[in-house]
Design goal:
single chain, 198 residues, alpha+beta, 4-stranded antiparallel sheet, 25% strand, rod-shaped
């Protein structure tokens, strides 16, 4: 009975030391559950004990796709890797598997969020600064053809018909004068003849 009791007491003392022997993250970049305002350039995790070179991790985006990273570097208790391309805004999960100092494989995960201010794309900037449309330029540009064309006189020369009408009127006026003169002469002659008869 005493032997069983001693075994149980020894197990109680050994369990905490075994639990403490397993490696766990003591520091990470980005930090666990952090929201960063710029895309991180690398993922770095430091554990409470040295880890083996077989340790690795994956970076997963919110759609479940793995994000490309560079070769993983192990330096004693730190595991790190550069990120191949800037991360888009969204939630990310780091899933890691390490071989701890006690030789046991330990895995875990933590998450962080990228929420960087959005900047205008080059296409949008180019569209905003491009020149007015050709239609607008045509509407505001002076008409070269109009300026180069000769000025047309507003008062055209009298036509041949107008000259004929003027000549006809002059001829009619002269005829009327001769008729009146003839009537006056005839009347005068008639008056003189009657006067002589008396």
């Amino acid at each position: 009975m005493k032997r069983i009791l001693l075994i149980c007491l020894a197990a109680l003392f050994l369990l905490p030391s075994v639990a403490m022997a397993h490696s766990r993250i003591s520091e990470s970049t980005p930090a666990k559950d952090a929201t960063v305002t710029a895309s991180p350039t690398e993922i770095s995790m430091t554990f409470n004990t040295n880890i083996e070179n077989l340790s690795k991790f994956k970076l997963i985006n919110e759609t479940g796709e793995q994000v490309a990273t560079e070769d993983i570097t192990i330096n004693e208790a730190t595991m790190s890797s550069s990120i191949a391309e800037p991360l888009k805004n969204g939630a990310y999960t780091v899933k890691w598997t390490i071989i701890g100092a006690d030789g046991h494989a330990v895995d875990g995960e933590y998450a962080f969020t990228v929420n960087a201010p959005e900047t205008p794309t080059p296409e949008a900037t180019s569209t905003a600064t491009e020149s007015p449309s050709p239609a607008a330029n045509e509407a505001t540009a002076p008409d070269e053809n109009a300026s180069a064309s000769p000025t047309v006189s507003e008062d055209p020369a009298p036509s041949a018909t107008a000259e004929d009408d003027t000549a006809s009127k002059n001829s009619q006026s002269n005829t009327d004068i001769w008729i009146i003169a003839g009537v006056v002469v005839v009347a005068a002659v008639f008056f003189l003849i009657r006067r002589r008869r008396k």
